[in-house]
Design goal:
Elements (H helix, E strand, L loop, with lengths): L5 E7 L3 E7 L1 H11 L3 H17 L8 E8 L5 E7 L3 E6 L16 H5 L3 E8 L6 E6 L6 H11 L4 E9 L5 E11 L5 H11 L5 H7 L5 H6 L5 E8 L1 E2 L5 H9 L3 H8 L3 E5 L6 E5 H14 L1
Parallel strand pairs: 5-11
Antiparallel strand pairs: 1-2, 1-10, 2-9, 3-4, 3-6, 4-5, 6-7, 8-9, 12-13
Helix pairs in contact: 1-2
């Protein structure tokens, strides 16, 4: 039986907040849909997990969009998390391959690039969307998100993200955690958490041995009084549809619409999920005619 991807939120009496995500299935779905190279898969898997961890306001169905736009050969990494538990994503150049680093790890930082910007957009159905940016510091995804949280949202955070690609290129492990100090947290509590985190080791190795990731809470919040707040399954899901594609076509200039009508059909592919939508000439003509009648 396959393991359900999950995110779990915890809080401690010492004012420490922890979120843990297991995203192996999501990352495997992205790998298949985009035919990702191992390093591209590691970058996108980390970014999708990071977006789910940042979208922590589950009561208000928060969404988070991330764009890691570095100077590496991978191009930009694009991720959308919405309703706090659904995510999609793609990279500009999914087939990029780089030599392993000296320690045998995938060179995500080299693929993304160490110079560029991370753009973060937060949104909920009821509140105003806001966007902020921070410089990339390593291209390794987790470090860039931690730097963003510190500089743009003034939240000291520890975030660990990892993707382990097996020899047959399938995903052996994917997930991570986010630890944040709530207002009033003591230096003693923060020091304890930092010491506890050193016991975990590489996050991918830990998740390979403990697939659900639930044991992380007992380690990170060890010696503290903590409780589980909320857990929910997380899914790969795209928001594209034929209706959305039609709305895009209806928004085109009249000259562009005429150009499209000179072709036997229109084919459009969603960047995020790879779904292809084909609209015949007759369907398109009827769509534009209906718009003219309604205007």
């Amino acid at each position: 039986m396959s393991l359900q991807d999950t995110i779990i939120h915890y809080t401690s009496d010492e004012l420490i907040r922890l979120s843990v995500a297991q995203t192996r299935g999501i990352t495997e779905t992205a790998r298949k849909r985009h035919n990702l190279s191992p390093v591209a898969c590691a970058a996108l898997g980390r970014a999708m997990t990071g977006a789910l961890l940042l979208a922590g306001d589950y009561k208000n169905h928060e969404g988070v969009s991330l764009k890691f736009d570095g100077d590496g050969p991978l191009g930009a990494v694009h991720v959308d998390a919405f309703d706090t538990n659904k995510v999609r994503g793609y990279v500009d150049h999914p087939q990029v391959d780089l030599p392993l680093k000296a320690n045998g790890k995938l060179d995500v930082g080299g693929a993304v690039g160490q110079h560029g910007q991370l753009t973060v957009t937060r949104f909920t159905p009821e509140k105003t969307t806001y966007t902020s940016q921070a410089d990339l510091v390593s291209g390794e995804i987790a470090e860039d998100l931690a730097y963003y949280l510190l500089t743009s949202e003034q939240i000291p955070s520890t975030i660990s993200l990892g993707v382990l690609v097996d020899r047959d290129y399938t995903i052996a492990a994917s997930g991570g955690f986010l630890v944040q100090a709530l207002p009033g947290a003591s230096d003693e509590a923060l020091s304890r958490v930092e010491a506890n985190i050193t016991q975990i080791g590489p996050i991918t190795s830990f998740l390979q041995d403990h697939p659900t990731g639930e044991e992380l809470a007992g380690i990170i919040l060890g010696g503290m009084h903590y409780k589980e707040l909320f857990r929910q399954p997380v899914f790969w899901q795209c928001t594209c549809s034929k209706a959305r594609i039609e709305r895009v076509l209806l928004s085109l200039r009249d000259s562009d619409k005429q150009d499209l009508l000179s072709d036997p059909q229109v084919e459009m592919t969603c960047h995020y999920c790879g779904a292809k939508y084909v609209i015949s000439h007759d369907e398109l003509a009827a769509l534009f005619a209906k718009q003219r009648k309604g205007s």
